[in-house]
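**Fold in tokens:**
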Amino acid sequence: MSDPTRGPSDSHHYDVVIIGGGLAGGCLARQLHQEAPHLRTLVVEKRPHPVPEAAFKVGESSVEIGAHYFSKRLGLEEHLRTRQLEKLGLRYFFTHGDNRDIASRVELGPPQFPPVPSFQLDRGRLENMLLESNALLGIDVLHGCKVESFQLASEGSNDPHQVTIVGARPEGPAHEPAAQAHEFRRTVTARWVVDASGRAGLVKRKLGLARPSSHGANAAWWRVKARVEIDDWSSEASWKSRVPSGLRWQSTVHLMGAGYWVWLIPLGSGSHSFGIVADGDMHPYDRINRFERAMDWLREFEPQCAAVMERHADRLEDFLALKHFAHSCQRVFSPNRWALVGEAGVFTDPFYSPGSDFIAMGNDYVTDLIVRETAGESIAERAESFNTMYLRLFDAFIRLYDGQYPIMGNAQVMTAKVSWDNATYWAITALLFFQQRYRRPEFIASIDTMLRKFFVLHTRMQALFRAWNAADDNGVSSHAAANIVDVDFLRRLQADLAIPLMDDEALRARLDANLALLEAFARTWQRIAAEHHPSLARFVSDSESMAPPLDVKPLRVSMMRLPA
């Protein structure tokens, strides 16, 4: 075990240099140490540590893939359960009237914690722990330093890459403020370079790999040093009784309206995170890109939330805004011994909290490539397969959001969409990760026909939701509530993520059965939409019209007429 008070040892050659020690880079270093502890790894992090808790980075909510990766794959469950907050699922409140009464809004969310856990993440607290523990594991860590330049080896060459690092290297342990520091400049060589620099995208920018995204949403976010419990926003007994524990506030709460959503996320350090995410055409960026402007916007669209924020404005910890946050990339994994992970590669949208999922899947791919290549295996075909699959997943995820923001305020269409999107995630995407198959290209090739059918169906359903919203008058009742896992097969799909590893034949059979279930689920929503809007019958194909629909009555919020 190395001494965490020192910087890199005198040898200037590494198996892996990771540019960035945030969530993606820190987790990758830990995973590499777990799977190949003999590899010599250097993490270069530009921010001096420890970083502030709470008011540090956005991206505080995880869902099943990311949570499973952190807790089970990386062994961080104790930290998650003792220093972070378990999440009471995803919760949505759809627009009703002037949005001054939370109890009158259609609510979609669970009354209790799900069987497969996920967590709310204080990023500062988590990344401080990762950097300190990585140093204690013997991973070389430099914080308060940056990569001044790098030179990748020519394609096909066996030469090492070169990375030049500059900074004021702290002389104290990673978990303590540096008492002294001295300027230094060092050039190291590396077998592998992994870019985890976030939106800086150093490798992407140098190699011209950026690919634009048509998804044009913007975001603004801030933290307040206070616990904001949405359970206290109404005293109505029937509303409070829906979640008997009184822990609605531990959900990732979404306040939904046409073209936007507002998040409320609690953090383990005691702060609360707020954010506005909005379609740039419907809600211009300059309406939300300053705190005062964001408050004016809240007063117009979410006045109850604005009133709560006004009570805590004197405890504001930070404010940040980002325009057109979605971005893509031509390549993220290269047989030339470099890779991009986290936001250095691609980013979709914070809705459904997929950021940590893409970190998990990307780190899993990169770890596999590095371990195999440094052991002498040729990885050219494997890198191409991984790159193709990762970008296919990105394209599938971006379809969840691109052009879909106008739907956000429609309680019935969004309930259908959320239930569909979660079903596809549990049935296919997350199941493959939990069953550890993304790193098995031969298995992925064996289910290619199934995957193609899945991606086509997925695309078609997103088109249905857009058309349904355009045809709909938004006339759903108030004071209604729904819970996705009240539907038996959806509850099973989520719970099945926790089943033991299956052999290939059994997993293929399960995936085929899940696809058949998704086809029936799609047919159900297609028929419901066509019942109300005959013009949407074009979305019901002849082949799909043969089998009976599924029972989704608990999700028919347009039929709910609960008393106010």
User: Anything to note?
Assistant: The longest strand covers residues 181-195. Residues 410-564 form one domain. DSSP finds 15 helices and 20 strands in the chain. Confidence is low (pLDDT under 50) at residues 1-7, 175-180.
